[in-house]
Amino acid sequence: MTALLRWFDRTILELGREMRLSYLPPLMVYVAAGVSGLTGIVGTFFVKDYLGLSASFLAALGFWAGIPWALKMPIGHLVDLLWRHKAGLVYLGASLIAASLIIMIGLIGNPAAMREVMSAEAWFVLSTLLAPIGYVMQDAVADAMTVEAVPRIGEDGRPFPAESVRLMHTTMQMLGRVAIIGGTVLVSLANVAMFQGSEALPEADKVAIYVRIYELALVIPLLSVSGVLLAGLLKRREARRLAGLGHSAEEIDRLVHAPEQPTAPNWWILGGSAAFVALTLAVGLSGLGYGQELIFAASFTIIGVMIYRLVRELSDDARRTLLGTVIVIFVFRAMPGPGAGASWWMIDELGFDQSFLSRLDLITSTLTLAGLFLFRRFMAEKSIAHIVIFLTLASTLLSLPILGMFHGLHEWTAAATGGFVDARFIAIANTALESPLGQVSMVPMLAWIANSAPAHLKATFFAVMASFTNLALSASQLGTKYLNGIYTVTREVRDAATAAVTVPADYSQLGQLLVTVLVLGLALPLLAIAVTRLLGLRSA
């Protein structure tokens, strides 16, 4: 019992004791990012039931929606350059997010009027592309705010020692992950409440729920803007405290409003990013064949050059650690998934409705949050390579029940247990085991960047590393698109006017798709770790 209490104190209570009021503003922006998933279930059912978009097209759309996250690099550098005025990017991002939500409110609530301007599919694509631009702007500012939130001067007027600063950075990054996952818990609770009993409702009532959820999601931009406003109030309070300690107006301005070191424009980042934006727009608007592959290759090259130039700011040891870390994380995050077809199969064949999926999301987000605490010491004490090996093996094992259900595992277990261990039981049990692992790989890397990056380039380093790891998600979407081109999975699509079936459901190739995803997800991350070791690189 004493050991358990000691673990509880070190893992959870200690984090609470390390919390500071100055951490709250970036945490509010991170909570807004977590709450962004509020419309996820609605979006899945809306696309499935009302839009004739294929799984391959949705994977391609996911690729384009991920491109703004590659632009986090110039946005992060812009935050460093416009340090005093970075709140403006949050306001702009909040406006884009609100516009995306309002489009969906109109598309679901009054589709006839929206179709008079553009097709429903075109409106959906526009909404899907606007939102990530807004979120990436807010996220880049929030990353910078986490650095700013760590105080430099103690209550006694003396600078904090380096070890205390390192601990505060680790705590701040941990709390940032907690805030994001906490936002997903709030989302899941809201979805459970909104979808309670919805399986028995007529379609018109379900649509009304969809609209209410998107209206509720308008709290997202309000949360992020409130965080920025609170940051302004806390800065003014800190300025008054420093004045009381006898600091001059110049010192107060430097300590409260200015970065630790001034940042000069990095024209490699700004020029390379401008070229990337121009190329992306040209390829996207031209409809050029293999446009996504061209954009990915250009993104990879530009970000790779930026990393090469930035790592020259680091020592040799830190440089090897950074390169080893980003390679392993990139490969781990770049693994393809089965795509939308797996969700459609669960809805159509396993009978997973909105109410059940909302409860499943609640389990996922709650246990992911718990996992951040449960694995806190593990994340702090183990290298990224050890963590990725553990997550790869665990993810492979936890993929087996879904593959088994495709081949009838749930029918056999239900027959053997009198219906107790059915498809929903297996899904819940699998989710309960898998969820705590969700954010384990990212916290050590973020803490390492916060503590090791040069003081005058904190936001830039965050942004470049985030761009590279987010580019891995674009690679994942490309892989998902390729696999969905090889293994075709379709759900039933009916004509909106005649109700005639235009595309029949076909899940016959889903099993092969799941096996391929499982094998790639096991082999490639382990191979990446082996290669980095052979090259003499380390991981954080």
UniProtKB/TrEMBL annotation:
It is a multi-pass membrane protein. Its main location: membrane. It comes from the Bacteria. It is found in: Membrane. InterPro entries: BT1. Pfam families: BT1 (PF03092). The chain crosses the membrane at residues 27-47, 53-75, 87-108, 120-137, 174-193, 213-234, 267-288, 294-311, 323-344, 356-375, 387-406, 513-535. Keywords: Membrane, Transmembrane, Transmembrane helix, Transport. PANTHER family: FOLATE-BIOPTERIN TRANSPORTER 1, CHLOROPLASTIC, RNA-BINDING S4 DOMAIN-CONTAINING PROTEIN. This is Uncharacterized protein. It comes from Aromatoleum toluolicum.
